[in-house]
Design goal:
CATH topology of the largest domain in chain B: Aldehyde Oxidoreductase, domain 4
CATH class of the largest domain in chain B: Alpha Beta
Strand content of chain A: 5-15%
Helix content of chain B: 25-40%
Structural class of chain A: alpha+beta
Order of helices and strands of chain A: EEHEEEHHHH
Number of domains of chain A: 2
Helix content of chain A: 25-40%
Largest interface: A-B, 50 and 55 residues
CATH topology of the largest domain in chain A: Ubiquitin-like (UB roll)
Distance between the termini of chain B: 66 Å
CATH architecture of the largest domain in chain A: Roll
Shape of chain B: globular
Largest sheet of chain B: 7 strands, mixed
Strand content of chain B: 15-25%
Distance between the termini of chain A: 45 Å
CATH class of the largest domain in chain A: Alpha Beta
Radius of gyration of chain B: 27 Å
CATH superfamily of the largest domain in chain A: Beta-grasp domain
Shape of chain A: globular
Number of strands of chain B: 27
Strand order of the largest sheet of chain A: 2-1-5-3-4
Oligomer: heterodimer
Number of domains of chain B: 3
Structural class of chain B: alpha+beta
Chain lengths: 157, 753
Amino acid sequence: MIIELTVNGTLRSVEITPSMRLLDMLRNVLGLTSVKEGCSEGECGACTVLLDGKAVTSCTVLAVQARGRSVVTIEGLSSDEALHPIQQAFVDHDAIQCGFCTPGMIMSAYALLKHTPSPTREEIQRGIEGNLCRCTGYLPIIDAIEDAARRMRTHES
Amino acid sequence: MAELKYVGRDVQRNDIVEKASGRIKYMGDRMQGGAAHARLILSPIARGRVVSFDASEAERMPGVLRVFSPKDDPGKRFNSALFLPDQTDLQDHPVFTDKPLFVGDILGAVLAKDEETARAAAAAVKIGFEEEAPLLDMEQAALPQTPSFREGMPQVVEGKIAYGEESLPGDAIILESVVRTQKIHHGAMENHICEARMEYGGVLLVETPCQMAFTVRYVLADLFGIPFNKVRVVKTPVGGAFGGKQEVGIEPHCALMALKTGLPVRLALDRTQTILATRTRAASVGRILIAADREGNLLRREMDVIVDAGAYATGTQRVMMAMGKKTSRLYRIPSQSFRGRTVFTNTTPAGACRGYGSPQIHAITEIAMDLLARKLLLDPAEFRLKNLVHPWDTDPAGGPALGNARIRDCLVRGMEVFRWNERRVIPSGTGRFRRGVGLACCTHGNGYFGSPYPDFMSMAMRFCEDGTVLVNAGLQELGNGTLTTIGQIVAEVLDLPPERVEVSESDTSTTPFDVGCVASRVTYVCGSCALELAEKLKSRFLGQCARVLAVDAHRLSLKNGNVVDSEEGGRRSYGGMVCRIAKELREEAGEYLHYKPEANPASYGVHFAETLTDTLTGTVEVTDYLAVHDVGRAINPRLLRGQIYGGVQMGVGMALSEELVYDSKGRPKSASLSRYTMINAPSMPKVGVLLVEEGEPGGPFGGKSIGEICTVPVAPAIANAVNASLGTMMTELPFTPERILAALSARRETNAR
């Protein structure tokens, strides 16, 4: 079947199968390989994307459920020239080691800051509680998100 | 020493923008042009025999290319840790087995045109088994009367390390304890994956996110009888390793399928398969006796440790011996004995895992040290200070000298910053929530020197025509910053910005030999190789420049990308000089170095933890944390702190929640991330970091290892804090709510009596 949806701001028609997961559609059909599969059961958060502005684990969502909706992956955050302030904060705080969890982590952070522009550290920790990272111990990630929130507020005001 | 420009600075990691943007392609992200997809068929039973293997339905499915069964096994057995023929580790590992020895043992595979078909077809293969009762308990496995399930292979492999008088003074205060550490999943976010194909010239090309490309080459060439120079192993970006990608894993299976079909094969595991079918941290049971005099001076220690290898030998015997070797390098102890027994059970094979036995042996010894301190009525920190090694001590068991061992500085400075003396004496109270503090000390190595495994490497280094530098080395970046660190060292010597230095990774056909990014050897050994080679290249380059410019070489120096003449005052770019050297001398501005370390000093650390335990639910929160490390010199302080934070994350999991457990039939109960609890952001404590930088001879700019040691003392530090706050003597990791409640209830009963 063919569904229409918006991916990273562009309206797309995509051929899918009924059993196809959103994760598979993004990776295998659309080539958005930043979306990673780590556990296949919504536990690790590596496949986190935004669905109508809300962070979801794309391994537990069927592609057909995205019909008519809007999906954003990390490919949709930055242009070729400039990183998004969250990405730049991750770079500046060394919040990335192996990098495998990073796209999902940044999408969770993005969803958090969209709804909570001035989060406390506890809110940040809860905002990424569904994203596992085995390298960084989360601390630089939390610092980065705190800093990104600051930068985005300054940028907007 | 002159002011350093790049070493000791927070240089940005080389690949971080690529990773932040999501553009980096791990193996699973690459275009799969023409590759056949393989799905492993794993044993659902823990022990038994395949009596029927019916692939007819699978073979009829459209898109299925071939089904591999135990009949496709090459017959020869391998050991996944072996990298030279003299190494005596048991070679007991089949590729496809008809006698599965654990749930997850690899029976066969399906090769299909896509992943979905391969998965469906693998599920359609019908296999009949004759089951036998599995052996799951490692202590039972160690008993002499327990028969081996391993056909002609020993059930127990023993090792001993001892020194000093065996006798104990009659008035010694003695602590005896049994400490248990659990089986742990590495938890790298990228699951195991590999590709193999036949290349032009009959070369088997294997691409894999691995830590030791030359070990992969060794095992594959040996197993399949292919000339070594016809096996090319290329390391791809790694999404986390932690030792789980150190030993050869699924490469033999992938290569076998490519060899048998001539097709390019991609073999990818999912999380459950990675947990079941790869490697784990070895579980252990340590019986320990520590004797001290009344003042707290250690007199003797005896350790009898059983280490669970799981179903195959892998590198676990090495892990067990590595555990023993750590025990004579932390405290001054007049006499000691270590007896280790590697035993086999019908569980997923163990092997290398961050710390290589150090977290296990330090859990055993450091939890026991606290229990003895309690018996002696001594402050656990003061008790340790009486006994810790001093700089330049030797290893009484015959290991390499300890070097500039700064554990005492770590402890003294850490006590001050953590306010140990003040916090230790605060009563934990009698309420529902009990607060307490604990600490643990540890040591780890810097390479293989002094072990049975040779430690050496080679590198090539050259200037390019634009003055950039190419370092040709068999390294493996694992996310820990290896390439950045090496680049900083080279940039410092050759005086150019680190981003103008490109450091390569392992390709066994094009990079010089290296034993691998393992054994905490990269900074100390590979970093020193890079430093010495950069100095050699600098000297050659300056000599070449002098010849081209017809001046004395002593007038010339390298300064920020330019060759500077001190008399004439001229500045000429590296690139310009490289081109003139090429044209006028017909030479390359390049050098090669064979490097072998002549020392293997110890790194040290002390971790302090504060915990808050809920006596109603049995849950523990780590509320404060300080990690103090003797690192010689931090090459990149920010990257180094990142290693420590990650090490603490793994260690908190070992202390409180992570455990691979099995039911009575040997079926894993925690084979997915919903059932295997790794520490997430809300459970991660704030971690303070304090570095002791007194310089280590033989290390680049005085640097030594951090990546493994930072996870070593975490579990015992937390365990000691919990025991101190509850008045318990728990010794079985992890400290789950069930175990804590059981210990509290046992304590209440004892007190009531």
